[in-house]
């Protein structure tokens, strides 16, 4: 992982740098302006398209010709199952677009979050996760690779609408729910060590536990909190509290055996960020991710 990531990200940045610089040279008849004065209008940068291979050669896929993706389908608006059983969500669309641009079909494998990373370790998937935070532990782990960020994670907690909990300190001695294995849950437990942790298999189960009184608060990210509140039959039945915990970059997971896939995915994600594809997907799902915050961390 330590060798693959710098190369993949470095190449993506280099390619984007070339795409951004080219219009400026053309406007100056091949003579570059003095250092520090070169500018490129946003409309030109957004319209730039990279000359990429198609189909993109992949040598270590779990199944030839197919991008196999592990997904929970329990994380709206990122991934969810419609009434007819079809999958939808901003990450479903993103993974499908990546597969298309690589010249692959896509196969989604549904399972609960605690089984996602073990399945990736066991070589069941090429990619997985609606999103995983960049943490020192995960970036240093050898079991899987992390893509460039696609979003920023904002940690919030849901509490019942009639509860008097107003801040983190009020959670001391109360039952704090979260999805088993998620970094949001780990960060919340670290922030409030006096709370009583209650692990849940998924976010829908956590919301039901909150409304049924099995937990006093439930930890999620902000897009999920907005989506759950919008879908609730009575939105006033719970409130969203912002504890003020710092945000973190979030990428998608790639099989550790597939450094070539990581390189391709990082280049495509860079293109999607610059040509507006990520923004279009985001808008379709009610701004699931705050893309402006990606700029604050250099993406």
TrEMBL record:
Residues 1-21 form the signal peptide. Coiled coil: none annotated. Keywords: Plasmid, Signal. InterPro entries: Solute-binding_3/MltF_N. Pfam families: SBP_bac_3 (PF00497). Residues 66-289 form the Solute-binding protein family 3/N-terminal domain. PANTHER family: ARGININE-BINDING EXTRACELLULAR PROTEIN ARTP, MEMBRANE-BOUND LYTIC MUREIN TRANSGLYCOSYLASE F. This is Amino acid ABC transporter substrate-binding protein. It comes from Lichenicola cladoniae.
């Amino acid at each position: 992982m330590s060798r693959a990531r710098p190369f993949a990200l470095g190449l993506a940045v280099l390619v984007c740098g070339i795409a951004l610089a080219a219009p400026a040279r053309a406007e100056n008849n091949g003579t570059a302006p003095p250092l520090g004065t070169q500018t490129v209008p946003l409309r030109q940068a957004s319209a730039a398209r990279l000359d990429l291979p198609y189909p993109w050669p992949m040598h270590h896929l779990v199944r030839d010709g197919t991008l196999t993706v592990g997904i929970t389908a329990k994380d709206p608006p990122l991934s969810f199952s419609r009434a007819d059983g079809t999958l939808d969500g901003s990450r479903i669309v993103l993974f499908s677009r990546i597969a298309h641009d690589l010249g692959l079909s896509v196969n989604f494998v549904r399972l609960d979050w605690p089984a996602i990373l073990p399945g990736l370790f066991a070589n069941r998937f090429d990619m997985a996760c609606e999103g995983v935070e960049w943490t020192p532990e995960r970036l240093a782990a050898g079991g899987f690779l992390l893509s460039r960020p696609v979003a920023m994670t904002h940690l919030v907690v849901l509490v019942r609408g009639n509860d008097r909990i107003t801040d983190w300190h009020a959670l001391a001695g109360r039952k704090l729910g979260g999805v088993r294995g998620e970094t949001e849950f780990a960060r919340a437990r670290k922030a409030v060590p006096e709370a009583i942790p209650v692990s849940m298999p998924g976010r829908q189960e956590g919301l039901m536990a909150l409304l049924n009184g099995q937990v006093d608060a439930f930890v999620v990210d902000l897009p999920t909190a907005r989506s759950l509140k919008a879908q609730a039959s009575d939105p006033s039945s719970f409130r969203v509290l912002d504890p003020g915990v710092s945000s973190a970059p979030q990428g998608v997971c790639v099989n550790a055996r597939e450094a070539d896939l990581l390189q391709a995915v990082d280049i495509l994600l860079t293109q999607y960020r610059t040509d507006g594809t990520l923004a279009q997907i985001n808008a379709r799902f009610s701004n699931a991710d705050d893309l402006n915050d990606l700029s604050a961390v250099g993406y």
